[in-house]
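Supplementary Methods S3. Input chains for the assembly prediction are listed below.
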Amino acid sequence: MSEEQIKSTRAEETRSLEEQFEARIARDEKIEPKDWMPEKYRQTHIRQISQHAHSEIVGMLPEGNWITRAPSLRRKVALLAKVQDEAGHGLYLYSACETLGISRDELYEQLHSGKAKYSSIFNYPTVTWADMGAIGWLVDGAAIINQVPLCSTSFGPYARAMVRVCKEESFHQRQGYEIMLKLCNGAPEQKEMAQDALNRWWWPSLMMFGPTDAESTHTEQSMKWKLKRKTNDELRQQFIDQTVPQADILGLTIPDPDLKWNEERQSYDFGEIDWDEFWQVVKGHGPMNKARMKARVGAWERGEWVRDAAMAHAEKQQERKEKEAV
Amino acid sequence: MSNKKNWPLWEVFVRSKNGLEHRHFGSLHAADAEMALENARDVYTRRNEGVSIWVVESKHITASNPEHNGELFEPAQDKVYRHPTFYDLPDEVKHM
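Predicted structure tokens for the full assembly:
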């Protein structure tokens, strides 16, 4: 066979492998780490799973701000447990991502250097206690809507991690809503605080579903690989329809003058999202981008001696054990 | 100064209650076995998911290669006589 022929046979083999691969996913078979997969599938999954993991890790920072200032022990243990869960979720996801052949070190490096993104919502400040309520209610509410479809995504380790995450997430949203409820049934100043938090978190929460379908670049491929089951706009609409009645129960007003029930669509119409703001924050110019990265990188660097000491201790113990065995 | 030695990877297996087998739950990084157990408790059993944990360093696991699934698993496919339904018995014979 000539070199030309070998090349074209190889290309054909890859094509047929890819076809078999796509057919497996279409049949709802799961892909496991050691299975053959197209390079683009691997890269897309590394990108999405690691972004998801980074979001959990950075997501601890805005709430960590309030652990020591929680208004009661009940609130403090709940917030502490929630932040602990987020650390856990980050770790499940990093593990799933590592099965694709990237090391934890590389993943951290991508986060710390700014190469990898995380959810923009965490680049907003948490200025009052009511923000803990709004984050649980809205941000975790939006996250659940984004995450539930991922429980049946095609990549096995990601789907398994998401099942665990989703199970744990519903307490997060309920504790947030309970905080809002308490504030709304309290003094006028407390209710005002709750309204102010809703005003600040509403629009960024809607942005969590990503750009509109017309602007979204990955949708088609992601649908095929079951990284997405519904489009950004469909998920956003679902979130709005589910959240507006919850705001009514609280007696709060959604900060959107164009929000209106559409009898025909059986859905809410809503106002224009400020996409300039969205892209500004994505590009690193949000109110807290720099502070979040500084806190994260600082914690990692200050912990270095602890990690090194633990490793040195483990090696010393191992050596001693080996000597004793002789 | 970091000596750049990263904590190795461990696989975590949890028995969710007595009577059930240990099942693979996921993995984590830890400096040694003791720390792996402690981290596994915090990462994988925050809500009473287990009564027993095993950890094993990932490098000690030998895994089969899915590309060889044919020669590894196909020989079992044509051995229908290993299943009870292969044997023809009259309907009058019950409970067998």
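Chain B has a mean pLDDT of 92. Residues 15 and 22 of chain B are 4 Å apart (CA to CA).
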